[in-house]
Amino acid sequence: MYISNININNYKNFRNNSIDFNNGINVIIGHNNAGKSNLLRALALIFNSNSKKHLSIDDFNKNIPIEELKEHPPSIKITATLKQDGCEKLMSDDLVTVSNWLSKLEEPYEAKLQYTFYLPTKFHELYKSAIDKAKDIFEVWQTIQDEFLRLYSYKIWGGDPTNQITADSESLNKFDFQFLDAIRDVERDMFSGKNTLLKNVLDFFMDYNIKSDGSLAKEEKEATIKEKKKEFGDLAGNLIALLNQRMTEGKKHILSYANDIGASFDKSTPNFDGSITDIELYSALKLIVEYETGIKMPIINNGLGYNNLIFMSLLLSKMQVDGNEEYLGSNAKVYPMLIIEEPEAHLHPTMQRQLLNFLKRNLSDKKVRQIFVTTHSTHITGAVNLDELICIYKNGNETLIGYPGKSFGENEESKKYIQRFLDATKSNMLFAEKIILVEGLAEQLLMSLFAEYLNISLEDRHIAVINVGGKYFDHFLNLFNSSNPYSIKRKVACITDRDPERKELLTKGKDSSNKKSFKKCYPFEMNISEIEYTYKKSESPNSYSENIQFFLQDEIYGKTLEYDLIRFNPNFKGLVTDSTANRDEIFKLMDQYSNDESLDTMLKTLKKSEENGRIEQALRDERSTWKDQDKKKALVAARYLNSVGKGVNALELAYELEKNLFKKRIADEKESTGFQEFIVPDYIKAAIDWMCAE
């Protein structure tokens, strides 16, 4: 069996949420204060016998309407559903454990446990009378805390909660709930045999070669271990005798004081004697680190991260001990659960991945049945399977749950694509409050700077910029389409290029087997001759929900990001970076544009080349309806676009725009620092404005 679902009602940030779990590992992700730790605490209220069951006023969800609070006292209900594993045999310890809690008898069977924190019925009339006098919501909660919280009770019901059958503690204790919180002192918790954890582990694994020998019968194992204990006892007796021998003369003087004060009476005399069992000697054992050189160091000399890993290995060993029926009999645990909060707190990225692999091995070896890990580490998120992720996030005051693996439905192609590319960088989108998806590196590097030129900080607004590496938005948008019940309902802006193209039409007399394909063209070449060419450009799709919007360059004048940077800033020479080719030619075109020289003069500046000839021909074409001012901007933009590379140029652009921004920050007046006005292209500005709108 496994915990397949938990329903949380009115507990902390959960108003009424149902969360599905995997049979195996569950990686629960979300930004800070999303409710990850609260989910673990909700599980503990049912399955951890050591957790505090009587709650405080701050454990209630504070978004309960005042009308509801006046109608009846608030209660907290946490319902866990346990479901039969597909590989599980019908008759098993699992079924025996949950037999009294079954809510579905046919296979796969289901059982329910519900923790309820409530005000007993006999106090309801008194409650209503007191709450009716409250003036506002704050006074309601204060009244509950002052007058009624002490009267609240808790129960754990088994089976259908409406039957109110109390779950017996003996069966609940069959669940081994091992919780490692984010802030823990493992050095205090494990490194000496005096500690219960290590003591239990040592006792179980003592003589393990005998205990695990499948060729020996149970009676033979017990006899062999008994002989080993006797042998140890004899050797320990010799140690005690040797110790007494060394104390022969000294104890005469020690015990003489007992005689002097009258401690010896009735013919009795104090003396020293004793024995040492193997269990008593565990306290002398301590974990150490032994190097190849033979040097031994205390385990506390390790880093905190390594010690956390060692602690987890000991904890899993203890869970193996606690679940061994031969060793503990009817006290053995049936269902070991490991709950880890923020493992990244002490582990660098490589060790985070190592931990995940370690946990998965323990799952496959059945040393632990179900694992719950909370994290906001993009390294962990990028390393696990999409189906293992559960995303907790907020929309205003509402807590919502997303399942990245389920959001693709039957679209296996997109799911596999995202699984391949969900690295530590791209997985950041699962944590962000809003997401901007871009085609390439240039947009990714420059987007935050564009926002700064608009006096906006993307970081302060928790907006992540993700480079999808091309026009592959569809794959990623499965995760966020709000019409999908499993998606993460976040605001997503997709910034993509218009990319106009044309295809030469076949004319009479030409070889029809010579098929033509679409090729990139300039905006000013579009629709000049529909007899010779067919044209197309990227359009904004309308197949997504309202939380997803596409932003492209102008339908007539736009082409790509680099093209639009110059179209909106035709005299900003900082955009012509060191790696840009034809710099002198572009600078001259910019100067000519600034001096309002004619289009003809600017076209004569172009170097002789096939591509420049094509640009000139299109801009001189009499069929064009463009104004000269637009043509002049397009000329500089086209020449610039053909002179820049993608990667290095993006880095240099980011540096130049950042340097220009720095001048603005320190300026009292723009003229005094050399700051140059930079205009963010309209489609970029529209995307940022939409993302920042409430």
From TrEMBL:
Record domain OLD protein-like TOPRIM: where: 430-499
Database matches in InterPro entries: AAA_GajA/Old/RecF-like, Bact_Antivir_Def_Nuclease, P-loop_NTPase, TOPRIM_OLD
Residue ranges of the TM segments: none
Signal peptide limits: none
CDD domains registered for this protein in UniProt: TOPRIM_OLD
An MF annotation (GO) of this entry: endonuclease activity
Presence of keyword Hydrolase: yes
Keyword Nuclease applies: yes
Residues covered by the Endonuclease GajA/Old nuclease/RecF-like AAA domain: 1-380
Keywords for this protein: Endonuclease, Hydrolase, Nuclease
Protein name: ATP-dependent endonuclease
Organism (species): Domibacillus enclensis
Organism phylogeny: Bacteria, Bacillati, Bacillota, Bacilli, Bacillales
